Amino acid sequence: MSHLRSRTGLLVALLCVLIPVLPARAEMDLVVSDAWIREAPPGTTVLAGYLKITNRGVAHATVSGVSADDFSSVEIHRTVMENGVARMLSARQLEIPAGESFVLEPGGYHLMLFNPVRPLVAGDTVELLLQIRDGACLAVNAPVARMTVDQHP
Amino acid sequence: MQQRNSFIRTKLIPGIIIGALAMGAGIWAARLLTKHDSGADPLAATRFPAARPIQAFSLLDHNGNVFDNATLAGHWSFLFFGYTHCPDVCPTTMSVLNSVARRLQDAGENIRFVMVTVDPERDTPEKLGQFVTYFNGNFIGVTGSETALQQLTKQLGIMFMRVNDADNAAGYLVDHTASVILFDPDGNYHAVFSPPLTADAMAGDFRMMARAYR
Q1: In the beta sheet, which residues pair with residue B117?
Q2: pTM
Q3: Which residue in A87, A88, A126 has the most chain B C-beta atoms within 10 A of its own C-beta, making it the best mutation to test that interface?
Q4: The complex's ipTM?
Q5: Do the domain assignments include residue A53?
Q6: Which domain holds residue A113?
Q7: Interface contact B87-A1, CB threshold 8 A
Q8: From the CA of B55, how many Å to the nearest CA of chain A?
Q9: Neighbours of A108 (CB within 10 A)
Q10: Which class for B86: exposed (0-12), middle (13-18), buried (19 or more C-beta within 10 A)?
């Protein structure tokens, strides 16, 4: 299974490298903002990433995968809370209807980033590649940041 | 069209107004009633009329020291149950707990914050220590065998369950109750904070409970 997954990841990366200059409509219509990677304790092998994707186009858009050179693999997950029990569910893709936004944020949808290839600390930047269903790729710079839950001194 | 208009004027609009009035009256009555009923406990946390003693359990902290019933005595303890391969909920809760710790620095109480792992297989004491102290140098990580962990979690109503997800590169995930349990200085189960957790509510509730305890 992991073999299959790494091949899929490679495919995503290859597609992104090979066809970055296609006249991609979705690429221009999708705007990513507020992207960040949560700084994790040293030695942590699983990190979380968050971002907001806005579809300014007139067509429905699907993000079918995410990859990043700084990680062995990236998955889309969703935290759900049922009767006080926290569970994580895999989400194969993200659907963003025309004119709408999709938010990945703590406690909800998030990117699960596996096995960082270098130590990542606040201030570093990670490049995420979002693969769009129409074949386009969207490169996003996500700063690594420490999460603060409030500004209390 | 005229008929429809007259229906709207004579039946529908009065109906809506009466409905809205009835709803308003209902909400007002409900507020009055709940004010009466909940006057006993203004807390966001759920606490028992009398704190509950905990049966014997024995675990180890990330420094290799025994963590058992005796360890709970003599100070307040916030216990959270999580694991280091949990990138979203657990770090958020740990950040909230750190915020609670900072807010309660001036409370004049001896308080400990503990994360008990629900993934003893992967969370070695060393990994747990790295994880919890990242959020606060005084935080404590606790582990033990699955059986030893269950001896504590079962009596607290904390559920954890390994979920084998073939699609997940981490191998498996652990579903777990995301509540925080508060033990009082008698080592008794005093209250539970259920998600969503906020530092404001937790610190405020703690102050009230600590005052009532003294």
Answers
A1: B82
A2: 0.82
A3: A88
A4: 0.83
A5: yes
A6: 2-145
A7: no
A8: 23
A9: 14
A10: buried
